[in-house]
## 1
Amino acid sequence: MATGLVRRPDSAGAPPAEQVHLQFGADASTQVSVSWAAPSAVARPRLQLGPAGLPASWQVEADERVCTDALTGVTAFTYHASVGSLEPGSRYAYQVLHDGSPPVPGTFSTAPRGRSAPFRFTSFGDQSVPAPVGRGCGPHSPNAGYVVDAVDRLDPLFHLLNGDLCYANGSDAPVATWASYFGNISRSARHRPWMPAPGNHENEAGNGPYGYLSYQTRFLLPGNGTPAHRGQWYAFTAGPVRVVALNNDDVCLQDGGFSGIRRDSVPGYLADGVDPYVRGYSGGLQRRWLERELAAARRDEEIDWIVVVMHQPAVSSAHFNGADLGVRQNWLPLFDAYGVDVVLAGHEHHYERSHPVRGVAPGSSLLTPAPAGRPVGRRHKPAEIDTRQGTVHLTIGGGGHPYSTPARRLHGPRQGIVIAGVERGNPLVQRRSVIETEPADWSAYREARAPYGFASFDVAPAEPGGMTSIAVTYWGASAGSASYRPRDRVVLRKPQRSAWLPGRDLAGSRPASRG
Ligand SMILES: [Fe+2]
Ligand SMILES: [Fe+2]
């Protein structure tokens, strides 16, 4: 247990455990971590666990992780306990506690083993918090609260957070913002893992060498082989689905982590060389890890679906941020080579879905993804897609941030927006993006009327004839409304992995298969 210089408290009158949330380990059928926080250090933090309906039969001591925010000097105290060797497809009940406080209960289900049972997961990004925190500098909206209940009503096995969780980097009270965030999602996230990919607003300049220490302190995620980058990129398996989470700040051209309040108020910001523009910070480590992960997933005959969750999108027709050329340069060749089925992103505060895409449109200097297996320019909405043709990109960034992308800021039906470069700058002045436009033949559906929302994914691992499918539904709501209704539906369907050869698409072209 890492205690640092923190004085152990007397247990009498200890503050209660709060912000309880779950994460899966690399194998979601057997491994779960429980995390929580307390307003000050606590004694003997622990997890008690057992099969649902029975008395808790196991106890696991929790590790303490602390992080002191560079802006405010406030320390966050977090606690994490992991369990493995659980039974697949099983229901468990647990409680977290420490000396002098009442236990806080929760439940979860492990993922089914292999293709043995269907399950559902959900996803959105860009949530924020439901009410002002501190001086109210950070974003907040009622929908950031409503979406938690909307997700929970669907009872997913797990939820994917596509980055920009609580926007603590824009708040004068970042530790309280995180507390508000977990306080809001915990009513769902203590009953099912909410698995995050970091977004640009998880970069809190001055917190750790690259700004992510606060985020890293609060989550216990599957390992990636590099402890210094823990939680930045990772993967886990649920049934026949391999989920790969990435940190796109590593490759993006856009200067998205800049925060005026941190520049102006973090002590030593300039003298200590703090710079939120961290493009290339992994030195290629993340890309090499990604290629190994994708190659292994594609070799694995038990994996039918590869789902990537990340923040900044590879395609966008919103005049808001734009797709980032850095994402296209670094990730899309790998997504093509290893046949990634679905990419989930956020950053643009709306919903947009692409046709399956593979390769680059002829003559495109912006690496515009080419629609694959569908006639270019047709405007009908496909009911069913075989993702062996190409990768379907979903931008689901309407989790709750109040600056949603209104209809007037969506460009024409065939115009995509691309961040093609970044102007020179420094840690004191946010670098400006160089924006270009492109034909958006990749765009299949854009939601202009219901900017707040999330998507659900119903995985059917074993359909008749050796087929498998994922039914995708986008649930949208208008601003201030708690009513999330289906707005877009599409079914992804293909044969199970054992029935097709890796690296061969339906068009007969053969991507660079190295796996
Ligand atoms: Fe955002
Ligand atoms: Fe963002």
## 2
Amino acid sequence: MTNNQPKTRTTSPLTLSWRVGVPHWETDEAFGRLMGLFREYRPVVDEVALFETNTHHLYIPLEDFTPRMEVAARRLDALRQAGIRSAGINVLCTIGHINEAWSYMPPLPFQAMVGHDGALSTGCACPNTPEMRAYVRAKYRLVAAARPDFIWVDDDIRMHWHGILWGCFCPTCLGLFAQRAGKPYSREELVQAFDDPGAENVREAWIDQNIATLESLLADVAAAIHEVDPEIVIGKMSCGPGMAYSGQAFERWYTALRATKARPGGGFYSDEMPKWMYGKALECGWQRDSLPPAVTDVQYELENFPYQRLKKSATALVDECTLALAFGLNGVAFNMLALDYEDFLPQMESIPAARPVWERWVAHADGLPTAGLWPAWSSRLMAKRTIRTGERWLESNRHYDISLPKVLGEIGLPLAGDRNACGVVLCGRVAEAFTDDELTRMLSGGVLMDSTALAVLEARGLGHLTGVRLAKRLDNGMMERFSADPLNGAAAGQLRDARIEFWGDATGMADVLEPVASGVRTLATLEDYFYRPQGTCMTAFENELGGRVVVMGYAPWIFLHSVGKRLQLQNVADWLSRGAMPVRVDETVPLLSVVRLSADRQRGAVLLLNAGMDEIREATVHLRVAARRGRLLTIGQPEREVALQPEGTGGCLTLRDIPPWGFRMLLLG
Ligand SMILES: [Zn+2]
């Protein structure tokens, strides 16, 4: 036990927390009703966090804020007296989130954040002026004086999307940057330098300034809180891992804030695209892997902002929380309390039945890393990416989209949030964020990559470790045909047609690969619509380091959902990981899998979620584990012991009758 152990921990390994808006707690009447709700749902209310403000605008005069925190203090006492083990305050605004209600909220009495285009935020502050810091310290002292068990710092701790796109280019921040860079820049000069291919030092120094700015702000917040009461537990909420402009320096930020609670971020607000819940869960898994060890309470945020009943079903709610817990989080912060109770009660009613199953999973999987393929991402992606002539650093660029490999999860390949997984996925230009040593280490193991990643590796002098070079880029009228290589199994000879021109610029969607070493295996070749061969587009190669590398040159991240492509990629993943992929399902069914596994494979936990609209009648699940028995769980059914049928690679289990968007959990060892 470290002395950072949050005092909110009890015997339950799972924390279910409720975030409560000001309208629910400010008046006696509203709070009385809320307490009635929490009494009724007591088994799923471990923790309550009161929002300190009702707008995303930072500034509230302290003379208005002081009496509100006095009310909050009484509410927190009442919550604790009702037996809720932990009651605290969620500080929504430290910098401010967006421009909101600016026409009547009091204007910021200090420097507002300035965008790269000179735009001025109306609701969010530059975090670097002494006036802003004095206000923030005073605000947090008032929050701490309300005697909360914990204080959350929300995810406005970022340097982008504050009513301006990219900040902060105010005189104070430009002055700080002049010291850091050793020469002064005007805003216009700096923005121009960002797009200079040779100005990598400027870009990296700017990201480092963003990191240092937020680190120092968080240190001020921690000092202000602990000056009032050193026992108050602190938590920090993060934006999704793709937000690399702000630096995503989790280790430094959580440490500066002395945080022991975390809420990894990401967006999944409605179930219009239900599979997107998997993408958010993976992002949460990535972030969880980046937290310092002192952070032990990691809560998923369930949200349907702005809180309307028909935007997200109870089934989606339960499934997305289950996925997040599967990826290694150990709590859920429910952000769904609409003003009208009828807008959330049916969803809330689904939670008590899920709790025992979630609790079993969290207890059993505690400390076990996720297993499978690790889609590579880096907090240094913005800092380290290259700029080619004509590219704009601050414009979005699809080659840096780290979310593309999540499609592998959709076809059932287990993906890992933890870096020490059994293989790496490299997409687009993400490899630019890594050092040569890091890339060489990856290439000495199993790597699945696209041909754009191949081009990055070639430029870095590492192309020989892939066995191929990028010979030609075709961008229209192409299909791929699977070769007779054994990795294609029964799919040999099949055609896959992704109709590559339909989805925007098709560059990188039909790349011809040419072997540069002996022993390169051709897994697929391009053909035009008259079935004329156009060259190799997918290869497998075992390099001099013993690494197994598969390069995909044809529509690498879309339309992998056919029977043949899924089979090929299952075989490829097994081959490049040398049989370490932890789970494989025979039938082509939409089962998402998340696996947690000990190094010796004796202990594990496997989630299989039916992400389809049809019942899955039967699924033959091969588990590459040492355990031979397990316990099968699902909501609403008694837990039962199951035996795995021994086979060469581990054990096999047949699952039956999994309803649409239902799941099974298997606890092993
Ligand atoms: Zn500034």
